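Figure-free illustration: sequence to structure, shown twice.
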Amino acid sequence: MEPPKDQPPSSAYPPSGSCNNCGGPTISEPAPQASLPDMSPPPNYRPIRAPAINVPHNPQAIILSPVPHAEKVPVVTPPYQFQRPVKRIHSPDDIRRFQESASFKNFLGFVVSLSESIDGHKIADPCHVSPTVATIVSILETLLRWIDEIPPVPMSSRYGNISFRSWHDRLAEKGESLVHEFLPDEFKESTIEIVPYLFDSFGNASRIDYGTGHETNFAAWLYCLAKMGIIKEEDYHAVVARVFVKYLELMRKLQMVYCLEPAGSHGVWGLDDYHFLPFIFGSSQLIDHKYMKPKSIHNDDILDNFSSEYMYLSCIGFVKKVKKGLFAEHSPLLDDISGVPNWKKVNSGLLKMYKVDVLQKVPIMQHFLFGWLIKWYDSSFVLSRFLSIVTSGCIMWFVDWVLYHGTD
């Protein structure tokens, strides 16, 4: 099937074809096959873990979305008003309110700043590692050791090993004391607000799953530390190359050892079943690389030799490891991205996609928390909405007056 000719080009990588079996995107004309149920996976797709198949992302919304820009994180000042964060998003209207808030724009700007900090750098490149960053890395290494201390129990099912709950219980028990290792005295009381973000960064203990919402919570935890001035702009390079890389190592081990199921995944419609941010940071690493292009992901020698230095290649290698079958069938979106001419376009498209397909999705963001550091409503948003309502009301009153009295 040929794609619609009037569809505009995009950096958001719309599907280039449609599969006869599942309706999913493909890169070539599929061979005629017997019809299968609409929700069946592609015939060669045999994942180690069964992904949740949801409605595909809206490429038009991503096309029309502007590319997010980096923003400086404002540092809070006394008096501090730390509070236990709570859920606020329950509907698309709540998503709209969040999208219009200063918190949304600044958090997304923080993610862009992290992406720009690693632009053109390998993971092993020298960078400034502050004592705070070193301590956070040490904490993640502690969480890694816990996996070895809490082995998976024998189960009849290969999905969702219940030992993950024991690991998570230990995190709940010791999480606050771990955070205290690097918090300055003036911020000791902040644990009531920032620990819940950390606690939600590693998956859900009841469902034994993990997804981009949990990954976003880890980014939100780092954002809270930046708002308190504990993480500074000069730390951003190390936050990505040291902290986030260690977090990714931890999550992959949790996924493999405890067989975490994908949470809210797009299945074959998404980048992969679990992560998004390492694709953003990894594509930034490769911007203007002399030799490696987006199509280089199909070269197994490149993946074997350079995955340890570039997050994007590491993610592709991991996807190929845990999924069976043709890459174009189990990961059609990643396959489509490989046809983009340069990494800068890949990076900008992924940032737009993260905004639309993660931060603006109710099933993902309904679990996101809001407190004093990440406000649900801020004064600037309330004022702008009030002025908008007053202005629109005055205009309507004037129109009614003119229609009634005429122009004489």
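We now fold a second protein in the same way, so the two outputs can be compared directly.
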Amino acid sequence: MDGTTQSARRYEVISGEAEFRALQSEWDALWSQAHGYAYQSFGFCWLAWKYVSKPHGRKLKCIVCRDDGKLVLVWPLATIRRLLWRCLVPLGPEGGDLTSVLVEDNELTGELVAGAWDVARKRCGADFIHLSYVREGLELWSLVSRERRVLVAEPYTVSAATLRGQGSWDDYCRTLGTLFGKRPGGFAKKLSKEGTVAVRMLDPAEESETAAIIEWMLKCKRVWSERTGKWSEWLDSPEFERFLGKLIYSSEVPSIARLIVVTLDETPVSAIVVTLGNPCASAVIAGFDPHYGKCCPGLITIEQCVKWAFESGYDLDFGVGNEDFKIYWSRGQTSTAWTVRTINTHWGLLAAHARNAVRGLIAHAKTPWRPGAAAPHADEPGSSHAPAMPSHRA
């Protein structure tokens, strides 16, 4: 890269709300050109900032890059204060969304993302950097995987269904086997023995009904989470509940998502929030009435979500998890994404050493001592408890 190109490229960290808002038109254009996910769109990120990150006291750190004045990269982040330390995280709720940088896929992608990673490390004032679900194969992943000081590294399965170009819905369904012994449509037939089954996509403008269904869905989700042990702090957050509603309808930005509801005798039994695609839609969150659990109403909603994406010309991202229905509808198309936390400053390293020292002392105190036996030894301060990072693949 020659000096002229270097001087024309400029990175900036946007920390002010007005400057963030002013990016909308350029951001929308880049998102369309780069075929971004919904979580990378300006609308999603604006709502995430206003209704999730800002109310929880986080500080905006949106990295942008311009080349000859044109916006070519956006990476929306925020910092969280934890006692005396700051952690840099993706903007918005840390649920099942992947982490990636919004940038076009071309010969400059690697350079641009590397520059953004350098800015994140050096100019955002963070002692730790926590990135949720970075998919293997991305340039961001190759950079993070080379970091020496890794505190946490956890792998997760992610699934996505390729639906475009599959002929008709019936053609696609014929390529599938059975899910728990049922072919597509089978679970709806089972539930119909209990009453009249119907599927609705709510009108985005019906804010009150949308809010009521989302409130009900999250209550169902909390019951499911308690039973399975898969808990998220956001399930109890009124800000997150409001955020989901704003994804479906907001006067500030275009609608980003839809709410699909399955009813039995006009009473909701399951629901799902799904984003619009560009061209990949994303299943955000779902819930079902446990009273009808044996009839699998949640699987009916998932099927209707896949059918809607198919008929709308979208692929469908199921996000993190290796649940059977995700493997089924994606026809086994899975990949791996990593949640990684790196130590970014000496101050952060001191905190990590202190944490390990405290753990060692607690382990030492809990170890029984027997007369005649050697005294137990505490863990060495600074020892790593994180899983090993995989080797970098070209």
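Summary for the second example: Residues 3-156+337-348 form a domain with the Aminopeptidase fold (CATH 3.40.630).
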